[in-house]
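The instructor's notes for this session suggest beginning with a concrete chain rather than abstract definitions. Hand out the sequence below and ask the class to guess, before any prediction is shown, which regions might be ordered.
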Amino acid sequence: MTTSTLAGRRVLVIGASSGIGRSFAVRAVKAGADVLMAARRQARLDEAVAEAGGGRTVVADVAMPDDCRRVADEAARQLGSVDLVLSSVGTAPLRRIEETTAGDWMSTFQTNVVGFNTVLAGLVPTLADGALVLALSSEAVHMPRWALAAYGASKAALEQSVRCWRIEHPRIRFGTVGVGSTVPTEFGDGFDGPLLTTALGVWTTHGQSQAEFMDTDDVAEVLLGVVASVLPFPGIGMEHIILRTPTPVIGPAG
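After discussion, reveal the predicted structure:
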């Protein structure tokens, strides 16, 4: 029986300063991986490195094309070759669809879709044969949510772009992970309070609220175990999985 491990694997985590990305990066370091953590905030990256007891960092905002190229360049320089990429980046405006501005649409797609693809374009020469590239998506792709139209649409576009990468680069394993409601994260920190209260009520009416959320560290631990199991077997792809709480729906379903 093969013992799956991340020891010695070269890992790039994009969006490593908070939430699932941070938790995954810390756990990967502790599991023996050589991890490059990319995010916008150096201080938060330094905290993650201190908690993990190791790791490397690169400060970058994937909404900026030059920063995307720097992430790819630093991955090549600091890791040499990359076995695993996890992108946990996600931003969203909380707006009714008719109030979502052109700027909202563009900034959401720039971060959630364009940034991911720009980093990948620079990473291609650095990815090892059989490398695993995973992007965190959302249940909002197939379960549209009131006031999150731009976010759901961007994650749908992200998933489609990953399918295209899979077709054009078959030596690499590309996949997405649909993630349900998880806490704690910083995803909704900038949401308008009264509008969020209204949104929560609408989501409940549509059967989109559940009794409990998943825990961020639990999700990261599950992802770590899954990728550690898949990585040693290059003939097995990991195209799409869904992580969602099994707790009951609150309010009407449908």
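Then share the key points. The mean pLDDT is 95. The two ends are 45 Å apart (CA to CA).
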